[in-house]
């Protein structure tokens, strides 16, 4: 606390407090941010907000609902008065913003219009927190030092692994596993941005590996593209029933596999609805 009784927010850890009553939007925002920030959530109740701010000392306040109701406006006014050194980021639909924009003013307040991509949300939070901290956190989804997305190749064929690596290593940071078990161990240590997974592996096959991933809180968010040598309709339906990010028939063509990976990675930027 300063002598005036106001917390010096610049000396705190990189904490974000998401404030709002919509569980769906709060959780979507949390999922987007928690990989590089410590994220907390609380409902739009002033006493809860006061308590959370005092306990976690956030460096960014994220309002996932902007409204003209008494509770929303009182909360915003209290934040501006009592947490003057902390940026406030509002996330609202264009319609909501037109209705309430005159109530949310000041240099402390910043706005993102929904729908907003995961990348845009991260960049905005990094920018706002970087201004007050004088530094920027490492960007999510990049390999240290080279800025490439990380892809894990999983196939029990060494020949196929080498072929895929040759196609992808110019554009992506590649790691390889020759079994489902090895892949799970690798992901427990470092999460890739995408997994190319052989569906018909010996031992723990691709389907079982994918099911194991879906039971893990961190791995379940990784998009998976299945590789399969079986192009029969029944086999493809079986793959699609697991709801992967996509599938590619073997032998893969470089142009098609690069196109599919780009499509999935862009789609995985997520949008806050």
Describe the structure.
- The chain has 273 residues and is of the alpha/beta class.
- The chain has helices at residues 23-33, 46-56, 70-82, 94-100, 118-133, 158-168, 180-189, 206-214, 233-240, 254-267, and strands spanning 15-19, 38-42, 60-63, 88-93, 109-114, 116-117, 150-154, 173-177, 194-198, 224-228, 246-249, 271-272.
- A 5-stranded parallel sheet has the order 2-1-3-4-5, sandwiched between helices. A 5-stranded parallel sheet has the order 8-7-9-10-11, sandwiched between helices.
- Residues 1-12 and 133-146 have low confidence and may be disordered.
Overall geometric form: elongated
- Relative helix content: 40-55%
Which regions contain 5 or more consecutive residues with pLDDT less than 50? 1-12, 133-146
Order of helical and strand elements? EHEHEHEHEEHEHEHEHEHEHE
Q: Give the strand line-up of the largest sheet.
A: 2-1-3-4-5
End-to-end separation in angstroms reads 38 Å
The CATH topology of the largest domain is what?
Rossmann fold
- Helical segment count: 10
- The CATH superfamily title of the largest domain: Response regulator
Q: How many separate domains make up the residues? A: 2
Overall mean pLDDT score? 83
Beta content = 15-25%
CATH architecture of the largest domain: 3-Layer(aba) Sandwich
Care to count the β-strands? 12
Major sheet: 5 strands, parallel
Radius of gyration, CA atoms, in whole angstroms = 22 Å
User: What structural class do the secondary elements suggest?
Assistant: alpha/beta
The CATH class of the largest domain, by name, is: Alpha Beta
